[in-house]
Amino acid sequence: MLFDYLREKRWIMISGKGGTGKTTTAAATAIKFAEEGCKTIVVSLDPAHSLSDSLMMEIGPSMKEVSGFRNRLYALEFNPNMLFMEEKEKIERALKEMGNLDEMMIPPEILELVGGGEVLPVEFAEGIGFIRLFEILKDSDFDKIIFDTAPTGHTLKLLELPDYLDSFLGKMIKIQLRLSSFFHTIKAFLRLEKGPDTAKQALEAFEKLKEIVNNLRQTIRNEKKTEFIVVTIPAIMSIYESMRLIGELDAYEIPNRFIVVNMVRIYKGECSFSNSLAKMHRRNLEEIRKAFPDKNIIVVPFFVQEIRGIDSLKRIINYLESFTIEKAFEAYEKGVCID
Ligand SMILES: Nc1ncnc2c1ncn2[C@@H]1O[C@H](COP(=O)(O)OP(=O)(O)OP(=O)(O)O)[C@@H](O)[C@H]1O
Ligand SMILES: [Mg+2]
């Protein structure tokens, strides 16, 4: 049922709290579609990458083919911050060469941006890095693009970038665009066409960036193309976090119809610890059902073995495919035991 629904979509983003099983879900989904013959890429956006560990192969920042899928499966561990940091140094140098910064009345946002300020730069950096990646993938021949997002990801924040750029632009005009070499570097970073470094072109560069981000925003919101899947575990704190995340996704009008509840203990037997755990998980599944009456809820059992490597990921696929919360309740009723 989950995969039937995703079959129509090109962009699949997996998000949720840390340690809930995002990477596992992303890798399993990618394997499923690659096996069906879709050209698939799974991209980790989490700076603490664990996609390599999950697929049991070394991936790193350049795209790798996952063997055994007849050129259908690729993986990438993307680091948007690293990309930005390299450029940041160039921008810093360009600004220093321009002399007295105070005299130029540079807006604090720009100084923050180049000076390692706290709030804005990280989001901006991740955003810019992601935009570059998005542009490349958009024009690629991948049928399925699956993102394993960072738990604290600023992926959503970047949707606000066009508004930010508007205010940024306003300030730029005020200082009469004296930062031409700064713009030059920004332009180079965005891989925009080179040419005479005029203020007009600099403005065009920012307009172009806004257009790209608006395009990205439209794609992410497009029901026909994109789906966000929220992964959670059957614990109250994780349920609250999912509520907040879903609230944010809804506010941005991003399609999100599925919740995966991972690591659910389904057990009835001799072990009193497992019996109690299963009871608690069943109760929390009921809470999840109540909290999200409109969502399709998929359950993945908690396995005795850690999920690593293609074979154990395939085990996850079977559950993602069809094990709905209703089926999980039936399994509890029947006293089924899944190890
Ligand atoms: N259903 C499951 N049963 C048993 N082990 C699981 C299950 N799902 C995931 N795991 C294991 O739990 C750990 C965390 O899973 P995973 O790395 O997919 O989570 P994550 O949300 O990506 O974590 P992070 O936020 O750190 O990126 C991994 O060691 C994985 O093998
Ligand atoms: Mg992960």
Q: Explain this structure to me?
A:
With 339 residues, the protein is α/β, with parallel strands linked by helices. It folds into two domains: 2-79 and 225-334, P-loop containing nucleotide triphosphate hydrolases (Rossmann fold), CATH 3.40.50; 80-140 and 156-219, no CATH class. It contains 13 helices and eight strands. Strands 3-4-2-5-1-6-7-8 form an eight-stranded mixed sheet, sandwiched between helices. Strand 3 and strand 4 form a beta hairpin. The protein is globular. The protein binds adenosine-5'-triphosphate and magnesium ion.
Identify the CATH architecture of the largest domain: 3-Layer(aba) Sandwich
* Average pLDDT figure: 81
Instruction: Report the count of strand segments.
Output: 8
Roughly how many Å apart are the termini? Answer: 23 Å
Are any ligands bound, and if so which? adenosine-5'-triphosphate, magnesium ion
Helix content: 40-55%
Strand content: 5-15%
The main sheet comes to: 8 strands, mixed
Radius of gyration: 23 Å
Number of helices: 13
- What is the CATH superfamily classification of the largest domain? P-loop containing nucleotide triphosphate hydrolases
**What low-confidence regions span 5 or more consecutive residues with pLDDT below 50?**
100-105, 113-121, 173-177
Structural class: alpha/beta
Class of the largest domain in CATH?
Answer: Alpha Beta
Indicate the overall shape: globular
Order of helices and strands: HEHEHEEHHHEHHHEHEHEHH
Number of self-contained structural domains: 2
Briefly note the CATH topology name of the largest domain.
Rossmann fold
Strand order of the largest sheet: 3-4-2-5-1-6-7-8
